[in-house]
Specification:
single chain, alpha/beta, inorganic pyrophosphatase (n-terminal core), Diaminopimelate Epimerase, Chain A, domain 1, 5-stranded parallel beta sheet, 12 helices, 11 strands, globular
Length: 327
C-alpha cells in the first residue's frame, strides 16, 4: 500500500490521468482521487486530464473540470490510474514523461516501469482500480463526492457485480459506499444500463448480424465504418455491445469489432472461465484481463477473425490435452 498523502505533501502541482477512451473505472478512479486531493490539499495545483470524456459520466462530481488537451507545463507529480501500459495515455503521455515524480494505482499488469515500486500499488486480482483507490484513501476519508466516483468505477468494472472479479471485499466496499448521499440506483442505470435510441439501434444491428463459430461457442459481430456513418454514430455508441453478446447461452467467448479506419479494427473480447482472453489479446498486441480484453488489428474482417479464433482454438486444444493427461 502506498501513502498518497505523504507522497503529495511536498508537491505543489499534481496531474491525474488514465487511459485513452476512458471507461467507468477510469472516470471513477481519477475523479475520486481528484476530488479527494482538491479538498485535502486546497492550496496545491491539481488537474485531471482525460481524452475525449464520455458525457455518460457527466453526473460525477468534477467531470466539468476535466482537461481534454495536455498542458505544455510540467507537474511535480503525475498520478496514473487504471492505465495499463504507458502508451495507453495517448497525448497525455508527455505529462507523465516530464513529471518530477509518478504514482501508479492499477489492476492491469502492464504498469511496470511507469512509477517507482515505492510509488506503485498494483493488485491484478482487484475488481477495479476504483476499489484500490478506496483502499489507498481509506474508509475514513470518504465523502459524498469520492464515494459516488468509487462506486461508479466498481459498478462498471464488475458489470454491476456480475463478473468473476467481484469478491466479498468488493461487495463490502460497495455496501459501505452506499451509505453516502447519492442515488446508487441512478448511478447503475446511468453508468451501465441506460442507452440512447441510437445505441439501441446499433445493439440491435449487432445482434441481428452476429454469427456463431466453433461449435457455437464463439459469437462474433462487427460494425463497419459505413454503418457508423449511416447512424451518425461514434465509438461511444458501441459501449456495452460486447457484454450483451456474451450473454448468449452456450457461448464461451464474445468478439465484437468496429472499424476505426479502412481495414483497421478495434476488437473487444469477453469470456467465461473456459477461455483466457487476456492471453489472446497479449499475443496479438493488446491486453486486458482474463475475462475482458481488447486490441487493435489490421486487415480484412476475415483476417482479424481468423487470427483471433486461431488463438481461441489453441486454448481449447491445450485444455483437451490437459484433460487427456489427467484422465
Amino acid at each position: 500500500m502506498i501513502d498518497l498523502n505523504k507522497i503529495c505533501e511536498d508537491k505543489q502541482s499534481i496531474a491525474i490521468s488514465s487511459h485513452i477512451r476512458p471507461d467507468g473505472d477510469a472516470f471513477g478512479s481519477t475523479l475520486a482521487v481528484y476530488n479527494y486531493l482538491k479538498k485535502r490539499f486546497p492550496d496545491k495545483k491539481t488537474d485531471i486530464y482525460l481524452l475525449d470524456p464520455n458525457p455518460v459520466f457527466s453526473f460525477l462530481p468534477g467531470f466539468e473540470e476535466i482537461k481534454t488537451e495536455p498542458s505544455d507545463g510540467t507537474y511535480d507529480l503525475f498520478i496514473a490510474l487504471d492505465m495499463g501500459e504507458r502508451d495507453r495515455l495517448g497525448k497525455n503521455k508527455a505529462l507523465l514523461d516530464n513529471a518530477g515524480d509518478v504514482v501508479c494505482i492499477d489492476h492491469h499488469l502492464g504498469y511496470k516501469g511507469i512509477a517507482p515500486e515505492t510509488n506503485s500499488y498494483v493488485v491484478p486480482e482487484a475488481s477495479s482500480t476504483a476499489e484500490m483507490v478506496y483502499d489507498v484513501l481509506g474508509k475514513d476519508s470518504m465523502d459524498d463526492d469520492t464515494a459516488v466516483c468509487i462506486y461508479t468505477g466498481i459498478v462498471c468494472d464488475t458489470g454491476v457485480f456480475q463478473f468473476s472479479n467481484t469478491s466479498q471485499k468488493t461487495m463490502e466496499t460497495a455496501g459501505y459506499l452506499m451509505t453516502f448521499g447519492f442515488d446508487h440506483t441512478k448511478v447503475v442505470n446511468e453508468a451501465f444500463y441506460e442507452k440512447t435510441y441510437r445505441q439501441n439501434l446499433l445493439l440491435g444491428r449487432s445482434l441481428l448480424e452476429s454469427i456463431l463459430l466453433m461449435d457455437k461457442k464463439v459469437i462474433v459481430s462487427v460494425i463497419p465504418q459505413r454503418t457508423l456513418r449511416f447512424y451518425n454514430a461514434t465509438s461511444k455508441d458501441l459501449e456495452g455491445i460486447v457484454n450483451q453478446l456474451m450473454h448468449t447461452k452456450g457461448v464461451d467467448v464474445a468478439v465484437f469489432m468496429h472499424e476505426t479506419t479502412t481495414e483497421e479494427y478495434k476488437v473487444s473480447l469477453r469470456s467465461n472461465e473456459n477461455i483466457n482472453v487476456a492471453e489472446i489479446a497479449a499475443k496479438l498486441g493488446g491486453g486486458g484481463h482474463e475475462r475482458a480484453a481488447g486490441l487493435n488489428m489490421s486487415g480484412s474482417f476475415y483476417d482479424v477473425i481468423n487470427n483471433v479464433t486461431a488463438e481461441i482454438e489453441k486454448q481449447y486444444k491445450e485444455k483437451e490435452e490437459i484433460a487427456k493427461q489427467e484422465s
